Amino acid sequence: MFITLEGGEGAGKSTQARRLAAHLAQRGAVLLTREPGGSPGAEATRALLLSRGWDPRAEMLLHFAARREHVARSIAPALAAGAAVVCDRFADSTYAYQVGGQGGDAALWRALVDGTLGGVWPARTFLLDLPVEVGLARAAARGETNRYEALGRDFHARVRDAFHGLATREPARFRVVDASLPLDDVTAAILSAL
Ligand code: TYD
């Protein structure tokens, strides 16, 4: 089973991904991974993406170049070997950030999903949802400010709206979890939904 965690800044995806992977590891092999990154070439692309700004289409292509590497070298082989895969961000993030946030081309996103992922697509996606101000404050308190976090409140409000739009369009895949709750409550909500 391929499971992804999505959400804006400061939603606690990485912590919840670790906990979900630990839970699933009681039953069998699990690959815990993240995007952008997750394989050597994709991690190199991550460094490019986070180091400077790009033309919006170039940025979408870079995210999908990294994702294609990640899928081909890590995710697809793990799924073929019968492992569960838990991924911190995936193609929905590109829709939310590059289409919703940056105003990129939704048709290009769709074409890249159809043309580069070889049908690898999450069975379940947990959208860790919380108000933009709360998420940005949490991320700032962690002392992390990557290039995307610095983009401001309006950008992140568009990202959140875009995630909600995706969840509404694919209700069978998405579970929206209130990420403003304490960490243990968020974990419990994810495990019970699973
Ligand atoms: P990261 O440090 O992993 O942030 P987070 O802990 O919030 O996941 O940095 C990843 C950043 O890249 C994050 O701000 C979201 C952004 N991003 C995109 O803009 N598009 C994408 O397709 C992905 C996967 C991430």
Description of the molecule:
With 194 residues, the chain is α/β, with parallel strands linked by helices. It has a single domain (2-193), classed as Rossmann fold, CATH 3.40.50.300. It has helices spanning 13-25, 40-51, 56-80, 91-101, 106-116, 132-141, 153-169, 183-193; strands spanning 2-7, 30-34, 84-88, 124-129, 174-178. The protein has a five-stranded parallel sheet, sandwiched between helices. Helix 1 (13-25) crosses helix 8 and helix 3 (56-80) runs parallel beside helix 5. The chain is globular and about 45 Å long. Residues 9, 13-14, 35-36, 63, 89, 93-94, 97-98, 146, 148-149 line the site of thymidine-5'-diphosphate.
Which bin fits the share of residues in helices? 55-70%
- Please summarize the sheet with the most strands: 5 strands, parallel
How large a portion of the residues is in β-strands, by DSSP E? 5-15%
Rg over C-alpha atoms, rounded to the nearest angstrom? 16 Å
Q: Count every helix, treating DSSP H or I runs of 4 or more residues as helices.
A: 8
Query: What molecules are bound to this protein?
Result: thymidine-5'-diphosphate
**Number of structural units classed as domains:** 1
CATH topology: Rossmann fold
Give the SSE layout.
Blueprint: E1 2-7, H1 13-25, E2 30-34, H2 40-51, H3 56-80, E3 84-88, H4 91-101, H5 106-116, E4 124-129, H6 132-141, H7 153-169, E5 174-178, H8 183-193
Parallel strand pairs: 1-3, 1-4, 2-3, 4-5
The chain binds thymidine-5'-diphosphate.
Task: Describe, in short, the structure shown.
By secondary structure, the chain is of the alpha/beta class. Helix content is 57%, strand content 14%. 38% of the residues are buried.
